[in-house]
């Protein structure tokens, strides 16, 4: 996987860090230059976090850092120490699919699936802040996650459906009450 | 590509951060990293040392004091666009912050990082020039304050010295003037092709336009703004002709045209913000 030779790698000092990922504590040795996205995948085996562009544009590596969506390719793993990291694995039940994932399946909101983990992570953060986002808000949020095969129509439909399911189940209401409704997720308050 | 190796420091105090910057050669400060890390991933930026200031919470405050809004360098774009003091006193700045990148970029990127990076198409350098802000630069030798207009030299170049840290930007609270903002980008979240902040006096026609995306740095031009739209359009075109645009003639013409459209929209928003109150 890595083309770095043993001798070259041996000269690079590593530092020991502790990462909190999906509620589990991991202590591991990393080079400071290792991106969080690569450490999640290569050191922790959490390959649901995808790496597309490595410049923050595509959104497929999005994770939650203390509940906020962030690009794991634009952060070094050493910087994530002391923060709670949630990957798509942490949003997936032991058995079956989360309500949001199930909605993606129902609406055929994916084809190749490469962008899907980033979509799920981003939208999960949205629905925690805003239980009933309008279509414009959903599209604005999804503009940071590039899908190149499905098109956004079915993805937007899946998000709206998932929001409805969550509201009806009542789970979303409790979270909203706890966090306070944050319209900032919509962005466009000109 | 992956970044080259570097030494990583996570100072616990501002003094410690400044000491590291004074001692280490080719050290680079990392805050949000939303511009720096892509450059490092492509190895366009190869710092030997990274000084991570994310732990310096004293740089993350927004406070109004003595007619000035002081915004700490570590304030993230998503905090900026929703902060009550920013929304109240600087609605055009709040609107501009909402146009930066995407949600997952705005939750991490900082105002200090954007100002020091000085991309000519970025919103916050232009907003700072438009609002006649002052940048507070701190080093182990002390503090100096630089007007935003003098801070930005050109494409990705500023007045900051290698051992200095931008700790805050101070914006005088507007009095008797209103601001509007507009920009045009190919897709939401992209850097703007061109944009403008327009300042209009509540009485009379005095005003100013701060352009970005056209030249290598934000440019603020004071002008009497005609109440007649057609005359204003000619004013904007004449003002834009004075700026150094991109070398490619077609691109330069296109960007100037978009900038003029943005200025008119920004003007309308500035006027409308007066009616709203």
Characterize this entry briefly.
The complex is a heterodimer of chains A (190) and B (277). In chain A, 36% of the residues lie in helices and 13% in strands.
Which features does this protein show?
heterodimer; A: alpha+beta; Ubiquitin-like (UB roll); DNA polymerase, domain 1; 7 helices; 36% helix; disordered C terminus; B: Uridine Diphospho-n-acetylenolpyruvylglucosamine Reductase, domain 2; Uridine Diphospho-n-acetylenolpyruvylglucosamine Reductase, domain 3; Enolase-like, domain 1; five-stranded antiparallel sheet; four-stranded antiparallel sheet; 11 helices; globular
Question: What are the SSEs and their pairings?
Answer:
The complex is a heterodimer of chains A (190) and B (277).
Chain A: H1 6-10, E1 15-21, E2 24-30, H2 36-43, E3 62-65, E4 68-71, E5 84-86, H3 99-106, H4 116-129, H5 135-142, H6 153-169, H7 171-179
Parallel strand pairs in A: 1-5
Antiparallel strand pairs in A: 1-2, 3-4, 3-5
Helix pairs in contact in A: 3-6
Chain B: E1 7-9, H1 14-23, E2 27-30, H2 36-41, E3 49-52, E4 62-65, E5 68-72, H3 77-82, H4 84-89, H5 91-97, H6 103-106, H7 111-117, H8 123-130, E6 134-139, E7 142-147, H9 148-151, E8 152-154, E9 157-158, E10 165-172, E11 177-184, E12 194-201, E13 206-212, E14 219-224, H10 229-241, H11 249-276
Parallel strand pairs in B: 1-3, 2-3
Antiparallel strand pairs in B: 4-5, 5-10, 6-7, 6-10, 8-9, 11-12, 12-13, 13-14
Helix pairs in contact in B: 10-11
Largest interface comes to: A-B, 38 and 40 residues
Cα distance spanning the termini of chain B: 51 Å
Report the helical percentage of chain B. 25-40%
The secondary structure category of chain A is alpha+beta
Oligomer: heterodimer
Overall shape of chain A: it is globular
Report on the biggest sheet of chain B.
5 strands, antiparallel
Low-confidence stretches of chain B: none
